[in-house]
Write a structure and sequence with these properties.
18% strand, 39% helix, Rossmann fold, elongated, disordered N terminus, binds alpha-L-rhamnopyranose
């Protein structure tokens, strides 16, 4: 009761005062939920009790990067299903553009004001949401990032789709094989600030330093902002600017779909290779018509499922987000890694041979 009313006071304060001032005023008022600023996910006060009962009747808000993106529709549906199974409530809020960080900030504040127990956030930017997320945590809301992380001090745990390093390096390996280790390549990314895409691109550049890629040249990184039309135009622009381009990596489901659409209707079909991260349902026709050879992804619904179960485990006190803690999600036991990262597993590579076995 007391905690509830304190939470309410702090939230009310946050709405009328500058958030940073309110943060100071409310800091320390909620017992075990206080997160030390900027000191990483491991800095959560309190101890995990792996045997604590799984709480029911919780409300978990999902805040994807972008609501009308089919990838997030699948991911968040996975979250909804898991929460229903666990006896808790799911809600989803979020911007329709992948470049609306101000929108994401105000959705974080709304969820905090609504006193959700936890939120699962895919961040458009590593730093922009931090003040709002820290405020949420001070008010007792558990914060899980999924798909795209924030700085580690701004959330309790990050549910990662696969190792970022694996994803970055394997995309280069796939494309290099397709172009015979020779020629100009480009990257068609999402938003310029997206944490996930930028981390993968960092590993792609590092992979390209290996001498086996000495004849492969990265000539441009373009940004389609997870907008189908902008991504289509950016692909067109890449080919106009670099007529000798041999391949494109697009580590975004929206980007790769638009690039495949452009290539398949152009003279470049089958000549310019395309790989990256896509859903099998989006790529099926382009694999069958020879525009795309192979690409990869994880199952977004499983990512949403794990984000939801992590949120519930945090809210139940089974974990705090510290390295080495373990918890059960469905039939699998997950161990929290460095910086509060929980990894879903290995991505799957899809090609003509296996694509028809998948439906998402
Ligand atoms: C897009 C988004 C998302 C990314 C996938 C691969 O839907 O940018 O963040 O993980 O692609």
């Amino acid at each position: 009761m007391r905690k509830q009313s304190l939470r309410r006071t702090c939230v009310a304060l946050a709405t009328v005062t500058a958030l940073s001032l309110a943060a100071t005023a409310c800091g320390g008022t909620t017992k075990n939920d206080v997160q030390k600023e900027g000191s990483g996910a491991g800095a959560v006060a309190g101890k995990a009790d792996p045997n604590a009962a799984t709480k029911k009747g919780l409300t978990v808000g999902f805040l994807p990067k972008q609501v009308n993106n089919p990838y997030f529709t699948s991911a968040d549906k996975g979250g909804e299903k898991a929460l229903t199974e666990l006896g808790s409530t799911y809600k989803e809020v979020g911007p329709s553009s992948a470049t609306d960080t101000a929108g994401q900030v105000s959705y974080v504040n709304t969820l905090t004001q609504q006193q959700v127990n936890a939120m699962a956030v895919s961040a458009q930017d590593p730093g922009a949401l931090c003040t709002a997320l820290k405020q949420a945590m001070r008010n007792g809301v558990k914060v899980v990032t999924y798909d795209s992380d924030t700085k580690t001090g701004c959330r309790n745990a990050f549910v990662s789709q696969a190792s970022a390093e694996d994803l970055g390096r394997t995309e280069v390996q796939l494309l290099a094989r397709q172009i015979g280790y020779k020629g100009e390549i480009a990257i068609l990314s999402a938003a310029q600030t997206a944490t996930n895409q930028n981390t993968w691109i960092g590993y792609m550049k590092d992979e390209l330093k290996d001498p086996k890629y000495k004849d492969v040249k990265l000539v441009k990184i373009a940004y389609g902002n997870d907008d189908p039309q902008q991504s289509f135009q950016q692909t067109q622009g890449l080919l106009q600017e670099h007529p000798h381009l041999k391949g494109i990596i697009s580590p975004t489901t929206v980007g790769i779909k638009a690039a495949a659409q452009y290539l398949s209707g152009s003279k470049y079909k089958g000549k310019v290779e395309l790989t990256g991260l896509a859903t099998p349902n989006d790529m099926r026709k382009y694999v069958k018509n020879g525009t795309v050879d192979a690409f990869e992804l994880w199952d977004p619904a499983r990512l949403g499922d794990l984000a939801a179960r992590t949120a519930v485990a945090l809210s139940s006190g089974q974990i705090t987000g510290k390295e080495g803690e373990t918890f059960k999600a469905g039939s699998t036991t997950y161990t929290i890694g460095r910086d509060g990262v929980i990894s879903l597993g290995k991505p799957t590579v899809f090609d003509a041979e296996n694509i028809d076995r998948f439906d998402f």
